[in-house]
Amino acid sequence: xxxxxxxxxxxxxxxxxxxxxxxxxxxxxxxxxxxxxxxxxxxxxxxxxxxxxxxxxxxxxxxxxxxxxxxxxxxxxxxxxxxxxxxxxxxxxxxxxxxxxxxxxxxxxxxxxxxxxxxxxxxxxxxxxxxxxxxxxxxxxxxxxxxxxxxxxxxxxxxxxxxxxxxxxxxxxxxxxxxxxxxxxxxxxxxxxxxxxxxxxxxxxxxxxxxxxxxxxxxxxxxxxxxxxxxxxxxxxxxxxxxxxxxxxxxxxxxxxxxxxxxxxxxxxxxxxxxxxxxxxxxxxxxxxxxxxxxxxxxxxxxxxxxxxxxxxxxxxxxxxxxxxxxxxxxxxxxxxxxxxxxxxxxxxxxxxxxxxxxxxxxxxxxxxxxxxxxxxxxxxxxxxxxxxxxxxxxxxxxxxxxxxxxxxxxxxxxxxxxxxxxxxxxxxxxxxxxxxxxxxxxxxxxxxxxxxxxxxxxxxxxxxxxxxxxxxxxxxxxxxxxxxxxxxxxxxxxxxxxxxxxxxxxxxxxxxxxxxxxxxxxxxxxxxxxxxxxxxxxxxxxxxxxxxxxxxxxxxxxxxxxxxxxxxxxxxxxxxxxxxxxxxxxxxxxxxxxxxxxxxxxxxxxxxxxxxxxxxxxxxxxxxxxxxxxxxxxxxxxxxxxxxxxxxxxxxxxxxxxxxxxxxxxxxxxxxxxxxxxxxxxxxxxxxxxxxxxxxxxxxxxxxxxxxxxxxxxxxxxxxxxxxxxxxxxxx
Length: 733
Hints:
Shape: elongated
Mean pLDDT: 82
Strand content: 25-35%
CATH architecture of the largest domain: 2-Layer Sandwich
Largest sheet: 7 strands, antiparallel
CATH topology of the largest domain: Beta-Lactamase
Helix content: 25-40%
Low-confidence stretches: none
Radius of gyration: 55 Å
CATH class of the largest domain: Alpha Beta
Number of domains: 6
CATH superfamily of the largest domain: PAS domain
């Protein structure tokens, strides 16, 4: 019959059928269904071929090595990675037994191990090798690999016999990163043999008012769509209704009733629940089939899973909304006319143009720095495929004439009938402002560092200089350009260089700042003591990448400290009493000799006025004259009677000095005191003995001579006469 002939043509792969039947009979409608089925199968085959082509491209582009054998274990395909690792080119390996090309051995023993393909043929299962497998390349190189081999079965054969093996192997260092992808690829290849793009099912119309539609047939491909095999769907007539929502079931039943009543065909979208709970969206095509009596007794349905398409459409809308709302500027323009076909909101708002205005413009209207010839020369490598993308910086001009700097990422989209350029543009005004501010900050920091009297330098972990300031240049006597890239040994003697290196290592090894003192000699021969702080430099990740050193000349400081120590020692050990007061003349410091001289302990006099030593022997006029002389000359010296703590009055030689700061402000008085009581007593005794007789205690000739001389001077000064009468005592010796 005609239907048998058409069915035979489908079986022979002749998918383009024509319906010779006419009229409105069940056979004619069934023939139409066969024609539609043939067209669908042809479309499915085309899709499978496209997927096979994409698979072939994927096979050559993946990073893993892949070898495919026929059912005899001979190589029929291998990708470039497999060629690289085995050392065999595909044309040389084709038809070779797999062990000849895929030579593997145990990494530990070096012994040849059985080929995984043989195990696949023997067991019919996927075989994986352990990670201690070595692949011996034809070039002599070896790779530590792991691999898996999977059978390629022909599902359409009754026994599902193995038609070949796909072998996937990889370097063990990338095994864990790529294992999942390889497994998915293997599964994809296996599933490709079983794939079916649609599900066909048939409803019989029965004489049952409660349920006039009885599911009588479901194709095996339903499992790919629903996760449940055809036996499940046919096990109970209530099953298929349970996988539809109330609204979906109502719509489907209305469509079935319309077809039962009116015949013809309908198409609509339908959602049903998958085995795992999610919903699958299908494009459902239904046609009513009449029997020989002209009665509609079947409805044949064919559904194609469009979930991915619907999701892609939703994602496309979502992505389009994201691109439209993006603050970055996005442009799409024709590769021939250069006219804009799409400009997002971010670009429109920044430029001040509307979408309609931009539709009449080209990139040249925004980039005034380019001529048409220059712009076309620039994009030529994209058109010829020499470059996948272009990145450049230029200016965009707004509608009002102002311009702003931009960074452009330009790519060519060859998909579709007409190639288009896609430009992602970033307004770099703020970035350039930040870069300028950063540069100014760096310049300021550099000036600050260069103006510092401290020696500042940076080294890498090998002790090589990478940066230094002006003071450091002066120390080495060379400009920074001649210092960078060299070490201490290039500028100082061996011992000094070794000292510097040891101190560097201390800072790096201790992992924290280290302070040390180093004597150095400048090129002019001057020696200086440097106090150097050395601290590790770290990268953003915390890794030590170098050393920062800051050296300060503390020669004068050291000398001042030594002088201060000497002065302190003199202050403590001196035999003369020393008293220091503040500007308000309150005692702030005394030495031990002061306590010995006055009897006062230091704690007893701190914060008090020196008048506590006053004996009362001098009147106010004396002190007024003393302070006046002190203010005029900054110093005063003289004799003064003071009182000890025990009440004794003693004669003291007092020297007072005023101390001023660098601004001339009085800050201290320093008084040095010596007890001259005994000295004065001795002086008086000596003077008395010089002018008196030791026996009689009467004045002697020396005193007479002194008194006569004084009288003569007085008489001469006043113009008076002087008479001298000399009486001698007889017999006095």
